[in-house]
Amino acid sequence: MKRWLGLWLLAPLAALAMPQLDLEVHLDPATRAFTATARLSDAAGLKGFSLAPEFEITSASVDGKPARLAGLQGHYRLPGGARRIELAYRAALQPLAALDHRQVLADRTPVASPEGSFLPAASRWYPDTGGLFSHRVVVNLPAGQKGLVEGDLINEIDTAEGYRAVFDFPHPADGIHLMAGPYAVDERTLKLAGRNIRIRTWFHPELATLAQGYLDDSARYIERYGKLIGDYPFGMFSVVSSPTPTGFGMPTLTYLGRDVLKLPFIRATSLGHEVLHNWWGNGVYPDWDKGNWSEGLTTFLADYAYKEDESEAAAREMRLGWLRDLAAVPPGEDTALKDFRSRRHGIASIIGYNKAAMVFLMLRDRIGSQAFERGLRLFWQRHRFRTASWADLEAAFAEASGKPLGDFFRQWVQQPGSPPFTGADPDFRVWRRIDPAVFPPILREVFVAPKVSLIVTDSDADVRAAALALSARLLDARPATVEALPKDGAVLIVGAGASVDAWLAKNGLPPRPGTVASRGSAQVWAARDAGNRPYVVVSARDAASLKALERGLPHYGKQSWLVFEGARAAGR
Question: What ranges in 475-514 are assigned the alpha helix state H?
């Protein structure tokens, strides 16, 4: 999930030391008209700011005096000694586009629609100094729409004339995201240690029946991690539905696709992960130059911890899954944790999430659970609303345990790959490379491979176009389209049923397995050839059946075979 990070010592001091942005926004999703006024102030002086070129500045003043600002590609310089700027600006936003989950992660376009509006921080929709700042934002929308940004809700008015809400974020921030939609809002209050924490759902109307469950589980996770780590750092937490397949976590909220929210397992897995990011990632910020530890620590204390809650067998199965995924990574691509920044592709996820989570498991095994939990609390107390690195984690756990941990962190964080391992490890508690031949082949071996060849067995133009589009959704690497089996690299074979069977027979590969024979509108299976090279076959009834796989199939990388009926996985 996407994180937005900052740096400072303590929230009250940070509010005095950083620029303050006061922003009032008017947005009409139906017409996509956007107008805003902004006041950016800093007693230490402002050198300049950026605002995306599509936002037209209609008036400006510097230190109370009207000014004409000259900008180059949206970057504006200010006169020396400027302490305060005030702007009025406007734009016609882009319409909401139909995007898949990968496109959503890469897209920076501010969009508006009655179904949902999203202005990501990376789109530069507000004046940004390029550093950390605190902010107060007023959101104005027409009747029937509601919206929010990061922060605590200070005031809210919802009438037949329209919606107006004020949000305050006094902590270090490096971005503001604005979300709006035809939301039905539900709320509950969680009382913890003399504080009232406001928990809200902002859901599209068809999701209203899910609200109570999300409220209750959000409260449960906040209580859980408050006891484990330290008090929840904000006064509010919101779960917000998106019309596109988003999966974003920001301070005080998570923004999840409306179809994702309907999935029965999300409350038991992803929701807790996003709540925990308010401590790791949005409460203590990774030092990006030295590696992103927050995803691994969150995975360990959320996704993996829930498996431990379920049973030791379930936890062991997750550890085995991590090592199975590592077996799909070519040795030269197994990078060091210190080099992980974000989940750009499957291999980065295996390292930054799975390996990092296993490293925290090995650390807990080494120093013991009590010392590990003391280390978590010490790390939180020292670095709340500050940037911290892997070295800071090492220092906290070393002090909590009374043991030097330099060799451990040097081996598992600073160095790439996995060291030689010769001991018996039947419970899979050590990060190590296992021969892929030990495991049944899975789709991910091809999906994450750095070199892949695409073979389309069908000459029909529509099938070939659908195969190319599907390969772009499935593969991390850009494939080379070939006609015959290449000498090396993974292979993706796609076509209509009869042509696939004929091509496999002609090239000496085994026929389709009985588990998928003559079932559904599409069949997918993973295999390895005589040289242990992985390949995946996608056989479909026609071009439309291939097209139907684009959304669902990328999420089934851990499977060995699947049968689809349209877009639905009917067997695996």
Answer: 497-506
